[in-house]
Amino acid sequence: MSDRNDLLGQARVIREVEKLLDSGRSVLLFGPEGIGKTAVIEVVRRPGVVVVDPLQHVSPQRASKLRRALDCGVLHLAAARVPSGRELGAVGRILWRFSTVRVRELPDPIMCRIVARALQEWHCTARREWIREVAALAKGRPGFATNVVRVASEWARAHGDVPTPAFAFAAARENDVIRSLRGGGVNARRVRPASAGA
Fold it and tell me: Is cis: bond before 54, omega within 30 of 0?
């Protein structure tokens, strides 16, 4: 589970989501893949709030259940790449029930701190240029950056040195595609209520 210290640069988003939930509004976080929507959800989730992550590919039957739960006042916290009814299919008809919060790309200095912290967590070292290049390749998306560091660290343990950022980035994307093809998806979580211990 993430905590506030892991979400450099996302304090504004966390405050906004908490304020909306406190006021009884369901929230849809949106932004590109790897931007940190799920990490924000892990920090702000609370008992009694239903988490739907990702909101894409929800069947018409599940969308109907969501609508009925919203009618009964059940709060929802969801994540999607875009807040467009057309893109979200059956669930698009109930988007008006959600307050939307955009999770934005992070600036390079924060991305460099995230990459450096991830390297420490994986007990791996790299030059500053490597860190800056990974931050640039990730384009403000911390999920991508930490995934690249994970792949680079595994490679370094197996082969004795850290691969180039471009190689690690390509390998990380390939791993995501393979996982998606196996049916797990990049983010395999589905609809589930927040547990009391979360």
Answer: yes
**82: three-class secondary structure by DSSP:** coil
Residue 188 to residue 149: CA distance in whole angstroms: 20
- pLDDT at position 172 over 90: no
pTM here is 0.76
- Among 37, 4, 8, which Cα is nearest to 108's? 8
Average pLDDT of the residues of the chain? 84
Q: Taking Cα atoms as reference points, which of 119, 116, 133, 71 lies closest to residue 97?
A: 71
Q: Beta strand pairing status for 26-30 and 76-80?
A: parallel
Domain extents in the chain: 4-104, 108-181
Q: Which CATH class is domain 4-104?
A: alpha beta
- What stretches of the chain show up as alpha helix (H) in DSSP? 11-22, 37-44, 60-71, 85-88, 108-121, 128-138, 142-159, 165-181
Tens of pLDDT, residue by residue over 132-157, are: 999 999 999 998 899 999 999 999 99
